[in-house]
Amino acid sequence: MAPFLVLFLAGVVSASRGDREPVYRDCVTVCDQNNCTGFRLRDFRAQQPLYMRLTGWTCLDDCRYKCMWYTVSLYLKEGHEVPQFHGKWPFSRFLFFQEPASALASFLNGVASLLMLFRYRSSVPSSCQMYRTCLAFSMVSVNAWFWSTIFHTRDTALTEKMDYFCASSVILHSIYLCCMSA
């Protein structure tokens, strides 16, 4: 019964409200046709800042970003709540950062985890029973914060999967650490 329920709900949650909005879809289609083909695509690439190119922002990504904010402005003008797009709330892009505050918070958490790793290695003798287990947990945590920073900087299918997989590995390693220390 449960698999059928999941399959039934899969169609219901296939897109965010903003993604389903005809104004947004039409805007993306028109923008893509007008800016992302032929000579106009070359113009887009020529005008695109280097940091945007290096982080993989495409013309279609730019269209989606601009159309998201166009749709949000219409929603606000009509007195409606701001919808989600692509499963996320709209954030203002800063340089190439999709979610600047989240990327900064993840980066700072990663730095804190790295500093604690160095502190742990310098203050705890390697002969301690749980030394390697705790060391591995620290490295798993640093890796998770690294991928979280990358994901919040540039959301792609790969960075999303790495963020979630690495966050899950921290949780699993935490459970393992609790069981080993009990």
Would you give an account of this structure?
There is one protein chain. With 182 residues, the chain is an all-alpha fold. It folds into two domains: 64 residues, no CATH class; 82 residues. It is 74% helix and 0% strand. It has nine helices and no strands. α8 runs antiparallel to α9. The radius of gyration is 22 Å and the shape is elongated. The chain starts with a helix and ends with a helix. The mean pLDDT is 83.
Number of strands: 0
How would you describe the shape? elongated
**Residue fraction in strands:** under 5%
Summed over residues and divided by their number, the pLDDT gives a mean of: 83
* Share of helical residues: over 70%
> Can you summarize the main beta sheet?
none
GO cellular component, one term: endoplasmic reticulum membrane
Subcellular location: Endomembrane system; Golgi apparatus membrane
GO molecular function: hydrolase activity, acting on ester bonds
Membrane topology: Multi-pass membrane protein
Supply the key terms.
single chain, 182 residues, mainly alpha, 2 domains
Would you spell out the secondary-structure blueprint of this structure?
Elements (H helix, E strand, L loop, with lengths): L1 H11 L4 H4 L1 H14 L2 H10 L2 H5 L4 H19 L22 H24 L7 H23 L3 H25 L1
Helix pairs in contact: 3-6, 7-8, 8-9
TL;DR of this structure?
The protein has nine helices and no strands. It is an all-alpha fold and 182 residues long.
